[in-house]
Structure formats: C-alpha cells, structure tokens
C-alpha cells in the first residue's frame, strides 16, 4: 500500500484533502484493511463516510481506493470491464480532481485498479491492488436476515445453508443457475461474496499475485484477499463449479477465451459478441493489425 | 423348576384425592411364589382385587409395600425397586402381560400389532412376521384381516389378537387377565393349548380365569385373593376405584 | 414364536441435575433432576404455565438455566457438561446429535426452500457435498414421513399443517440424531392428523432407537409414545414413573385430577 502525506498536495482542487477523505478516516480504513488482509474473507466493519455520490455508485470502493492511493500511483477504473462507461469515467475524474494522480487504461501500467463487476482478462502482477465495489457483502444475508445470526454462522463456519441455495438451484433448474456473485470459500475458512463479477472471473481470484480489496459503502464492510490465497467456488461433487462458455469468439479481436458481451447491432435482431474487457480487446486488435502489417512487409 | 416370580409382603391401598382423600385398601401382605412351568390361578369373588394384584405383578400398579422378585437376564431383580428403564427392559424380555382388552393402536395392522413385541427385542422383521402369522392362524384370525388395524374387530377377535401379541415373545413369566372371557369353545381350546405350550417351555404363569374349564385345564393351584383384608370394604373398594379414578377397566 | 435375546443395558444419554430457571419473580422451572437413556422416550406433561416449556428450552440448550448442570454423553467425547461447552460446540452438537421439533412448523422449517432442501440441509451442514446422495437421502425420508415424492421440490408453505409437521420430523431425523426434543408436536393439528403423526413418530422412534423428550399437555400422546412420564405443576415435578404406572395408578392429587379429567372416547 502506498502511504500518503498529509501536507500540501498538488491536487487540481485545493479545497480538498488529498484523495478527498481526511487523514484520520484514511487511517481508520487502512486499519480495517490490515485486519481484513489478516483474516482473508472476513468482513470487517468500518465507519463508512458520506461520499459525494449516491450509494450503489461505488462509495465503498472509492473509500478503499482513497485510503491506499498515493501521488505516485497510477489508477485504472473499469465498470463492466470497460474504461469508458459512466461509472468508470466519473470515478476516474473524481480521483483526478481530488488526488491529481495519473490514470491509465492499461492493466499492466496501473498500480491500483478499481472495478465494478469484472476482473481484467490480463493477469495481474505482484504489487498491484484491485479494489472491488461491493453492493451486498454478506452472502448469508439473503438466507437469514438477522445479522446476529449470520455473524455467528461466519464465526463458527456454519455454511451448510449456503450449500442449500445451490441445492435449490439444481433441484429447480438441473444445474447451479447462479451466474454472478457466485459464493466462494476463502483460505478454506470464510464464505465470501466476490461482488457481482460473473462466475467466469471466479477462478482469477485463486492464487492471484495482486492484493484484492473489497469495499461496501452502504453496508459499511471491508474485506480482502491477500496475494496467493486459495479461493474456492462452492459446488457439489457431482455438480462441479463450471464457467460460462461461448460457442463463438469476439467479433472484434477474435478472442475465444475472454468474457463476451452481447451487442445488438440493428433493429432486425442482428447481434455480435464482443469482449467485455475493452483494454484487452483493444490490445488484441492492435496486435492483430501489427501482425498483419509485419506479414505484408515480409 | 426354580421359582421365577416371588412376591413378598405386597400391600396395596388406593387413596382417592379427588374423592376427599378416601382410602381403599385392596390387599395386604400377600406372598406368592410361582415356579417355572407352573400356572397359578388367582381366585376370589369379583372385586376381591385379582386384577389389581395381577397389574401389580406387572408393575402397572405400584404396591405400597413389599417386593416382587423376578428373574431377568440371569439376575434376580426387585421389580418394585427397579428403575423405570429397567422395568421397560424387564417387560420387553422377561414378563408378558395379556390384558383383558386390546389397547388398539391406530393405523397399525393386525400382523404388525402382533409382531411388534418381538421386533422391539431386536428380532428380524421377517422372522417376527412369520411367527405372528403362525399365531394368528392358530387363533383363527382370517388372513384377510391381518393387514387391517384391529379397531373395528369384534370383541372376541380383538381378544385373540391381544393373546397372540402377548405370546409373541417367549417370556419366562406370563400374566394373563381373563384371556378367554369372550371366546367360543374352539378358540378357548386353542388358548388352553398355547398356555400349556408355554408351561412346557418352563414359563411361570399367573392368570385370572373365570371359566372353570380353562382353569382346570391349565391351573396347577389356586391362590385366594381377598381374604387378607377387611371383607366388608373390599368389593366396594374395587367398584369405587374403577368408577372414579378413570383407570382402565378391571 | 421368538425366544427373547439378551442385551446389556446402556448408560444415561442425558443427565439433568437441579436445573432451575425463573423470569424475575415469575417461576419457570425449579430444581429439576432426571436422566434419559439411549432409546428412551420421556414424556413431560402439565398444563400451560407449569414450566414444561421452560424446562425443554433449558435442556435443549436454547435457554441458560439459573442453576443446575446438564451432562450429555457425546458420541465421540463421552459425557460432557453442556453448559460448559463453547457456543460453536453446542451449536454443532445441536445439529449433529440432537433434533428439535417445534410446535409451530414455521419455527423449524425454512418456508422459502423446497421440502427436499429442508431435509437436505442437515446433511449438508455436517459436510455432505454430493447432490445425488443428498437428494436421494432426502427423498428416502420424505417417503418415511409419508410425503409424496412429487412434492419434493415444492415449498412447505404450500403444505397442510400435518405435512409441515411431518416434514419437520424428516428434517430432524435425517442425520439420525440420538436425542430429539419435541415441543407439543401434535399441537394445532386436527385429531385425525394427530393420530397419523403419532403412529409415524412411534414407529420411527422405536425403529431408529432414538431417545426423545416430548413436552405435551395431551395424555394420549404420552400414552402412545413415552416409556416414562414426568408430571409438572407450578415449576416442579410432582410425580414421575413409568407412563402406564402414572396414568393408571396416579398417586399425587394433581395427577389424579389430570387423569380423571380426560374424556374417554
């Protein structure tokens, strides 16, 4: 984690402290983050602050990013895999305004990646931090609304009832129908919501070299996965975890291994599938052009 | 044969708290020893306390004083001093009791009602069912009734189902409360045969038989009940009890 | 006819010693001691307010007694003081070796999950992870409690009261608990439905050799199910013994009143 100084900073807007939050709040959040990293998957309560945007727009992720970002960091923000969607653009601009940090769209150039609903296709490296925006941190809250009870279930690792929700899926649909926010067991101990990423991304959390941080602003919870941690998606022996797959490839870059979005192209039902990760797709398209170019030359 | 059942100094008085604490003495200081292979007939006028004594021997009623020594699992145990769970075990394996009336268990088929006691002792279901079928056949319960619950059977049929259930396990001690009361001659003879078989296996039998034919056929000796207490109050006592306490019919 | 085989007598499964619990000045239960052996069915009768439900809550680990001790013979650890167990240990015990059948099925079932899921939850809670096995075991139990297999994937809120109660029993017995607590298991059911439930319980409890503690105000229930009976009045046990002894030859004035108050059908 980068450390910040509380002296004069060179932000565009002199009216705010560096990265918007005051230094005491950032220290409080960093302490929660350290605790979260020490107990992988455990939900740490924290004093979530009012942010200048509504709940559901990433207030938890922004507070986590604000607490770990420093002047030398380079920030990438994605929403559904894209750098150019409303949520991504406004959060990126927010940090440009209050922290004056460099930004990038390249995964490998970023030191911090804040994300909503995706993990980039390009593998992360040691030293990188990925911050997830989380709407519902506790997977058990839908099963038992009493937090006094769900906290005990976590404390005593009573997770049979989570398995029950998967059982119900198979009984009703013949397979586990959950396609996003698919529950995982972290470090063989804590049940965790991976945030609403597609289950396609679940395997990327396993043994990831980067630090993975999760912030839920409205629910006031922070949790984390330290580098190289075991993250297992729940399943049954006879209904093992499986990822989504597509019969075709990306219409733009031809990738057969990335997560694809369906795009409607006209009013007569025409549609194509393209990578949801725009940075990955652009890279591949550039690479293809480059290859064609070099083929022409030789 | 050795003594299988030995009651010593048995006394029983009912105290009816709902009737202003009326005390009704039934019998006092009874001594009764029964050998294996022997059949003792309890004898005395109606209301003398024969049923009360028989129920006491099964620990269904709690005598106020005395001991009831029985052989159970190779040991001699005082039934009145035994823990409840011990009594349950003793009743499961060592003492059989055929009451006057069948306590019908809803929805359980006749065959299962009869086979149950053996199954409770750990017998295989199939072997128990075969043995139950054999007994029901001998007691002339038509096979078409076996799958029905005995609730709708006639008094005589229920009585025979009850006897079959009571004879299902080879208890070393068998208590019979008027087993032939509502039976015709042919069925009576079959019950006599079954009791004699039990005796020849060494079972100690104590019974109340109003029917002289049965008494003469199976009984080895009579045991007079009702002489040991005040004769004037005894019959009255029995009537009072069955009318007010709501206990099962004498 | 079958000669009776012999078997050794087992030690107590649960020993309750001097358990008391009051609510301020209000009496709950007072100085209750008894023990239950493996496979033994104990009935506790008394009218409303006699303390029988408080006692059941105390001995099933849902309510902390003011005084007294509870010793339970755990399968792998032997006798332990339940009140000295940590909360997770007690919860684990409750879902592996114990079962609780509530008077109101809504308290004991997950109404938004399917019948099969309700039965499968306990096996999953203790580590079952094979869907096919969990489901066939659940269906096996639905059959045992006479619920049509076509209802496996229906939610209990579409079931009748009697079916819900039977489902609750299946949900509890699926992991073969050694001790089941039942709080008025036939309360709120029609008489005909009660009879069916009682037969079923009687058969299952005897067949599986499960020990049970049944709290009820219905003497017919204990007559059919219980080996042994405790009669409670004003927080105390006033008479106890074999069920037929207590019901046929009651000694305490209150028990005599209770027995004589039952209408003979």
Description:
The complex is a heterotrimer of chains A (about 300), B (about 250) and C (about 260). Chain A has seven helices and twelve strands. Chain A has helices at about 25-40, 60-70, 85-100, 145-155, 160-175, 200-205, 280-295, and strands spanning about 45, 75-80, 100-105, 110-115, 130-135, 185, 190, 210-215, 220-225, 230-235, 260-265, 270-275. The radius of gyration of chain A is 20 Å and the shape is globular. Chain B folds into two domains: about 5-95 and about 170-245, 3-Layer(aba) Sandwich (Rossmann fold), CATH 3.40.50; about 110-170. Chain B contains eight helices and nine strands. Chain B has helices at about 50-55, 85-95, 110-120, 125-140, 155-165, 185-200, 210-220, 235-245; strands spanning about 5-15, 20-35, 40-45, 65-70, 75-80, 95-100, 175, 205-210, 220-225. Chain B has a five-stranded parallel beta sheet, with helices on both faces. A four-stranded antiparallel beta sheet of chain B has the order 2-1-4-5, with helices on one face. Chain B is globular and about 50 Å long. The two termini of chain B are about 30 Å apart. Chain C has about 260 residues and is α/β, with parallel strands linked by helices. In chain C, about 35% of the residues lie in helices and about 25% in strands. In chain C, strand 4 (about 65-75) and strand 5 (about 80) form a beta hairpin. Chain C is globular, with a radius of gyration of 19 Å. The chains are: A alpha/beta (about 300), B alpha/beta (about 250), C alpha/beta (about 260). The interface of B and C includes residues 16, 18, 88, 89 and 128 of B.
């Amino acid at each position: 984690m980068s450390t910040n100084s509380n002296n004069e900073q060179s932000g565009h807007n002199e009216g705010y402290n560096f990265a918007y939050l005051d230094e005491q709040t950032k220290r409080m959040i960093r302490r929660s983050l350290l605790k979260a990293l020490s107990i992988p998957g455990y939900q740490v309560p924290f004093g979530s602050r009012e942010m200048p945007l509504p709940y559901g727009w990433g207030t938890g992720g922004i507070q986590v990013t604000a607490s770990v970002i420093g002047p030398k960091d380079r920030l990438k923000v994605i929403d559904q895999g894209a750098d150019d969607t409303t949520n991504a653009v406004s959060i990126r601009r927010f940090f440009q305004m209050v922290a004056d940090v460099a930004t990038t769209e390249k995964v490998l150039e970023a030191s911090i990646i804040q994300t909503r609903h995706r993990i980039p296709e390009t593998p992360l490296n040691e030293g990188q931090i990925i911050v997830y925006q989380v709407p519902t941190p506790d997977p058990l809250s839908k099963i038992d609304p009493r937090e006094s009870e769900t906290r005990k279930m976590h404390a005593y690792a009573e997770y049979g009832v989570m398995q029950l929700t998967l059982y119900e899926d198979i009984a009703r649909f013949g397979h586990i129908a959950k396609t996003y926010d698919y529950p995982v067991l972290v470090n063989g101990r804590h049940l965790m919501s991976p945030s609403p990423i597609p289950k396609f991304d679940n395997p990327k959390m396993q043994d990831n070299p980067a630090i993975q941080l999760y912030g839920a602003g409205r629910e006031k919870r922070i949790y984390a996965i330290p580098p190289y941690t075991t993250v297992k998606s729940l399943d049954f022996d006879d209904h093992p975890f499986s990822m989504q797959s597509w019969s075709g490839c990306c219409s733009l870059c031809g990738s057969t291994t990335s997560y694809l979005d369906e795009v409607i192209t006209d009013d007569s039902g025409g549609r194509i599938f393209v990578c949801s990760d725009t940075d990955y797709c652009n890279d591949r398209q550039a690479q293809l052009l480059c290859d064609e170019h070099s083929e022409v030359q030789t | 044969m050795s003594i299988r059942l030995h009651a010593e100094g048995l006394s029983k008085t009912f105290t009816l708290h709902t009737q202003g604490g009326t005390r009704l003495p039934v019998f006092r200081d009874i001594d009764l020893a029964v050998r294996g292979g022997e059949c003792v007939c309890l004898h005395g006028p109606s209301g003398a306390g024969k049923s009360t004594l028989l129920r006491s021997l099964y620990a269904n009623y709690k005598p106020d004083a005395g001991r009831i020594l029985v052989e159970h699992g190779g040991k001699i145990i005082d039934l009145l001093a035994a823990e409840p769970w011990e009594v349950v075990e003793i009743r499961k394996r060592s003492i059989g009791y055929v009451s006057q009336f069948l306590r019908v268990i809803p929805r359980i088929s006749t065959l299962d009602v009869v086979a149950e006691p053996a199954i409770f002792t750990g017998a295989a279901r199939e072997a128990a069912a075969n043995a139950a079928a054999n007994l029901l056949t001998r007691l002339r319960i038509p096979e078409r009734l076996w799958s029905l619950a005995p609730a709708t059977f006639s008094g005589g049929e229920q009585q025979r189902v009850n006897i079959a259930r009571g004879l299902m396990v080879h208890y070393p001690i068998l208590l019979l409360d008027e087993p032939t009361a509502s039976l015709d001659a042919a069925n009576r003879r079959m019950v006599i045969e079954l009791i004699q078989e039990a005796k020849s296996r060494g079972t100690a039998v104590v019974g109340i038989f109003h029917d002289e034919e049965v008494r003469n056929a199976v009984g080895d000796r009579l045991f007079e009940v009702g002489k040991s207490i005040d004769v004037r109050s005894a019959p009255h006592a029995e009537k009072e009890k069955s009318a007010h306490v709501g206990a099962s019919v004498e | 006819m079958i000669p009776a085989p012999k078997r050794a007598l087992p030690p107590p499964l649960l020993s309750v010693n001097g358990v008391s619990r009051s609510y301020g000045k209000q009496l709950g239960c007072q100085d209750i001691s008894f023990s239950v052996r493996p496979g033994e069915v104990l009935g506790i009768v008394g009218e409303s307010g006699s303390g029988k439900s408080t006692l059941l809550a105390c001995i099933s680990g849902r309510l902390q007694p003011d005084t007294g001790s509870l010793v339970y013979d755990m399968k792998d650890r032997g006798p332990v003081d339940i009140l000295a167990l940590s909360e997770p240990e007690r919860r684990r015990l409750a879902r592996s070796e114990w079962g609780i059948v509530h008077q109101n099925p809504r308290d004991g079932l997950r109404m938004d999950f399917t019948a099969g899921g309700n039965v499968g939850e306990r096996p999953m809670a203790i580590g079952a992870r094979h869907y096919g096995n969990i489901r066939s075991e659940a269906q096996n139990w639905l059959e045992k409690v006479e619920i049509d297999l076509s209802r496996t994937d229906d939610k209990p809120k579409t079931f009748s009261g009697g079916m819900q109660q039977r489902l609750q029993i299946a949900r509890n017995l699926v992991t073969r608990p050694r001790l089941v607590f039942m709080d008025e298991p036939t309360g709120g059911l029609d008489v005909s439905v009660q009879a069916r439930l009682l037969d079923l319980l009687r058969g299952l409890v005897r067949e599986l050799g499960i020990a049970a503690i049944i709290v009820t105000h219905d003497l017919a229930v204990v007559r059919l199910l219980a080996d042994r009976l405790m009669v409670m009045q004003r927080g105390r046990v006033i008479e106890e013994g074999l069920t037929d002894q207590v019901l046929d030859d009651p000694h305490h004035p209150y028990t005599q009143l209770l027995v004589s108050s039952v209408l003979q059908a």
